[in-house]
Amino acid sequence: MKALSYDEIIVPSEYKQQITAKPKPASREIIINKMYVGGYLSEGDNIGHEIINLYKADDGKNYIYLNSQGTIKLSRGENSITVLLVRKFASKIYKVLAKAGGITILDFADSKLPRKERYKGQVALGLTYGGVNLVDLFNENSYRGSLEEEKNAYTTFVADRVIKPKNQIYITDDESVSDENTFFIRTNKGFGKQTLREFYNENEKLESFTDLNEIIENNELWEEVNTTQAISELPQPQKDSYFNFLKIIRQEDNELAFSNMFAHFFNINRGAFSRFTQEVLSVDIQTDFTIKREKKNIDLLISDKNNAVVIENKIKSSINGINERHDIYSDQVQSQLKKYYQFVTTDDEYRQKTVSCFIFSPNYNRIDLSKFSCGEKYTVVYYREIYNFFVENRNLFDEVPYFKDFINAIYRQ
After folding, report:
1. Final residue of a domain: which of 233, 254, 286?
2. Mean pLDDT in each 10-residue stretch from start to end of the chain (413 residues)?
3. Do 219 and 356 reside in the same domain of the chain?
4. How would you class 45 by CB atoms within 10 Å of its CB: exposed for 0-12, middle for 13-18, buried for 19 or more?
5. Pairing state between β 182-184 and 197-201
6. Is 289 helix (H, G, I), strand (E, B) or coil?
7. Domain ends where: 184, 205, 233?
8. Structural domain count of the chain
9. How far is CA 2 from CA 5, 7, 11, in A?
């Protein structure tokens, strides 16, 4: 008897579809988890839930909290997930802290569950860090001045491994700021400004996924093994050699604070500042100079009989354009740089003097002056040069209050 082929067998269509259907392959997905951001962390003594992400729990496993609520759709567990842990570093730049792989979503982190049920699941898990129960760790957190009444899940994933970079690496959505340590990630509209987590699935956002995955799979960038530690394994904290008062008041990146300090320490030893301008700025300023703060919005305007020096101080910000206007005869953006230069070259008090313009910038904040009208009139002076000068000439500031804090604050930049 002739054997019948599959196509010759009469099978109801619904069963035939089940027989022929192939299992859907798991897609790969990268989640960018933005840590240590938002006003929540600056309220009272709140501890960010993401603090657990770079430590092992006492059970020896790595658990990851996904900002901002710790929840996720369980259906995403069908994907092969890698979580990239990052923090905001500068305008359009994120510092990569670690990558977490071998991700499993915890059942109680289901976004469809009521908040109370998620919290019950967290309590039942019984995680401890350094002997302290995880749910107790956040009990004193407040929201708008009152203790948080609604508890939530404080973990989202368990990870097989959390791998840190060998050296500092960064990601950006602005191709103009990319370099050997800062990788450009193609996106349709750039990284989200408000969202604390972003999903990049290879089937939905292929270009972004490809760029991120190249970083993740580049073994030269990463430690070979999981180097995270449990709290009990951590060494005793060492004294911070570069501690300064700005750290106490959480103003280490405050441009206004730095501009005020520059004005103070430039003025407190005029001979030292004259040497600074000669050696660092290549301008011969005499000791009878004057310093003005925020004159016509200029951070520092310093002048003597023959010179006018404009200093614009930038820490984690870029050059401010003027309503995105361009010059009539070029593609350059009109900006505060042009505004300041035009002022000192036309104002009766300064226009007869030799004008020199500078931008003080941390070494990581690369500024492309070619984009801006009058950008060629400015010279970028990096904080490393400023720091080196004051360290080499620290004897000129013996017994000057807060000078050590000043140079330690510069060192961080």
Report:
1. 233
2. 48 50 74 86 77 94 93 93 93 93 95 92 93 86 66 91 94 88 91 90 95 95 93 75 79 88 94 94 94 93 94 77 39 73 94 94 81 88 93 91 90 84
3. no
4. exposed
5. unpaired
6. coil
7. 233
8. 2
9. 9, 14, 18
Burial of 184 (0-12, 13-18, 19+ CB in 10 A): middle
**Rounded-to-integer distance, Cα 134 and Cα 216, Å:** 29
Report the alpha-carbon distance of residue 124 to residue 5 in Å, rounded.
55
Do 223 and 302 lie in one domain? The reply is no
Tokens of 113: 């569950």
- For residue 323, the SS3 value is strand
Pairing of strands 290-295, 229-230: unpaired
Domain enclosing residue 77, as ranges: 25-233
The pTM of the full predicted model, rounded to 2 decimals, is 0.58
Residue 8 lies in a domain: no
What is the token pair recorded at 225? 């093994």
Cβ(33)–Cβ(64) below 8 Å = yes
Whether residue 74 is found in the same domain as residue 156: yes
Could you tell me the two tokens for 28? 């790969």
User: Running DSSP on this structure, what letter comes out for residue 21?
Assistant: P
Other Cβ atoms within 10 Å of 24 Cβ, number:
7
